[in-house]
Design a protein that fits this description.
Elements (H helix, E strand, L loop, with lengths): L14 E14 L3 E3 L1 E2 L8 H4 L4 H6 L6 E2 L8 E3 L2 E2 L2 H11 L7 E4 L15 H16 L3 E2 L5 E2 L14 E4 L11 H16 L6 E8 L5 H12 L6 E9 L6 H6 L1 H15 L10 E9 L3 E2 L2 E2 L16 H17 L3 E3 L4 E2 L6 E2 L7 H12 L7 E7 L5 E7 L5 E7 L15 E6 L9 E7 L10 E4 L5 E5 L3 E7 L1
Parallel strand pairs: 1-22, 2-16, 3-4, 4-7, 7-10, 10-11, 11-12, 12-13, 13-16, 17-18
Antiparallel strand pairs: 1-19, 5-6, 8-9, 14-15, 19-20, 20-21, 21-26, 22-25, 23-24, 23-26
Length: about 475
């Protein structure tokens, strides 16, 4: 299915909203932004091709960049042979930027550890995970073929180790539909890894969530039966797995993400040991589908079509909407899937190394709402909450940031459409007295190469914000 958008111009404004920001605080806002890599034979050469890409990666200031080695980047080739070349082509550059503390997800076992029915040998997998910890955090190991392996990141004056480890990827759709099977694996593997390094931390579950009531089913069992250390639990949210879904169908999924996070927290609270464990969203994007020899992996018989809503102006409305809903639900991390890819997934274009519009959306979400900065989410009244998402926060220095995202759809069948124009009247007079203000807008007119520019505006209410179709505006006042 090709990209469809409405061609007839709409009146300006097509939708209006009156937003009034209160001084009443709802509580802290603390949602960190991050990104992801999937080292494999199809992308491991990215940093070799674009060594300067570590600069935009570092500029994102991502928390605990996620590494998910799969396919030929799984380093154990056979019972006695290992090769870290593909995995480390991505892992070593990532260790050198940002917080120098990625999350390494032990996503899948080497193929020889599964039987014909795809049942996993848990003892073998635990030993495999131990050797990964030996390689990245300890004195290394010698494989059965006599080769010594140790991470280059440990062989410098400032050694970098991996503290955060995720245990298996999306077990509910990867051979562990019975949550007790996953919990048993987790309870075995985590203590085995701790034998090598007592200081490491663990991310549990990393569910393929958002449908079929998986949060309720999986986390209920995990919370009741887990005995090993749990530092974080995680979920994955995609709005669709079908490029044919309309813009409205995709936007309609977003409030459910926040509801799923609330469900997870309510289940965690049933186990006092897990009551303070945070929820991370370690994968997030518009569409989870991918090409399986040219056909849709999610929809057999349907030709795969790249869903460009992952990097178009649609994303400039969708991701801020997602961020706001998850932040209000108390999620503590939101990971983009993934950093270097195509127009469906990438923040950077993997073929050119250049930023896409999605990069700037994530960049400014991180900069406007820095995690751990003491921001307080303020109450507000919004006359069009069905089409306009608002997120007002008070900074610790008394300054104000108000995010306004326009996800008003022009026509019911639009697919990567342009969205309706919007005119917003923003009253911030109750939130404080401000002497200066600016607005930064990301929409279809934003230059993806250089990003958006902040424009000075009057700080006096009402402040008028115009959004030309799908997009987001960040109003800053001090």
């Amino acid at each position: 299915m090709g990209t469809v958008s409405s061609s007839s111009p709409s009146p300006s404004p097509a939708v209006t909203a009156m937003i009034t920001v209160s001084s009443t605080k709802n509580g802290p806002l603390d949602l960190a932004m991050s990104t992801s890599f999937q080292p494999a034979e199809w992308d491991y050469q990215f940093f070799q091709s674009f060594p300067m890409a570590t600069t935009p990666l570092g500029s994102l200031q991502p928390q605990h960049v996620r590494l998910q080695g799969v396919s030929k980047a799984i380093p154990q080739i056979s019972q006695g042979s290992w090769d870290f070349t593909m995995l480390d082509a991505i892992t070593q550059p990532v260790l050198g930027v940002g917080d120098h503390s990625p999350e390494f997800q032990v996503a899948v076992a080497p193929p020889f550890m599964y039987d014909a029915q795809r049942n996993l040998s848990v003892p073998q997998f635990a030993t495999y995970a131990q050797n990964l910890v030996r390689y990245y955090n300890a004195s290394g190991f010698t494989s059965g073929d006599g080769v010594f392996h140790q991470s280059p990141s440990l062989q410098s004056q400032n050694p970098q180790r991996i503290t955060w480890w995720g245990i298996y990827n999306e077990p509910n759709i990867n051979n562990m539909g019975n949550p007790s099977v996953y919990t048993s694996l987790y309870n075995t593997v985590v203590p085995a890894m701790q034998q090598i390094d007592r200081g490491i931390k663990f991310v549990g579950v990393e569910l393929s969530g958002g449908y079929n009531n998986w949060e309720q089913i999986y986390f209920s069992s995990f919370v009741q039966n887990v005995t090993a250390q749990v530092d974080v639990v995680a979920d994955h949210f995609y709005s669709t797995c079908n490029q044919k879904d309309s813009d409205q169908q995709v936007f309609n999924t977003v409030p459910g993400f926040g509801n799923d996070v609330r469900t997870i927290y309510s289940l965690l609270s049933l186990n006092p040991r897990l009551a303070n464990v945070p929820v991370w969203i370690t994968e997030n994007n518009v569409n989870a589908d991918f090409s399986n020899n040219g056909m849709s992996a999610c929809n057999p018989g349907q030709v795969f079509v790249t869903d460009r809503r992952g990097s178009s102006a649609f994303f400039a409305a969708w991701r801020p909407y997602v961020f706001s809903q998850l932040a209000k639900a108390g999620a503590r991390a939101l990971y983009h899937w993934d950093f270097a890819a195509d127009a469906q997934y990438g923040e950077l274009d993997a073929s050119s190394g250049q930023p896409q519009l999605s990069y700037w959306v994530d960049f400014w979400l991180r900069n406007m709402f820095p995690a751990g900065s003491g921001q307080q989410w303020l109450q507000s009244v919004n006359s069009d909450a069905a089409e306009i998402e608002v997120l007002p926060v008070l900074n610790s220095d008394g300054s104000l940031v108000v995010m306004v995202a326009n996800h008003a759809v022009r026509a019911p069948n639009d697919n990567n459409g342009s969205g309706l124009n919007a005119q917003i009247s923003l009253d911030v007079s109750s939130a404080g007295s401000f002497t200066s203000a600016s607005v930064l807008t990301i929409d279809a007119h934003t230059n993806a190469s250089s990003g958006p520019n902040s424009v000075p505006i009057s700080p006096h209410s009402p402040i008028t914000i115009e959004l030309n179709g799908y997009g987001v505006a960040f109003v800053s006042a001090k």
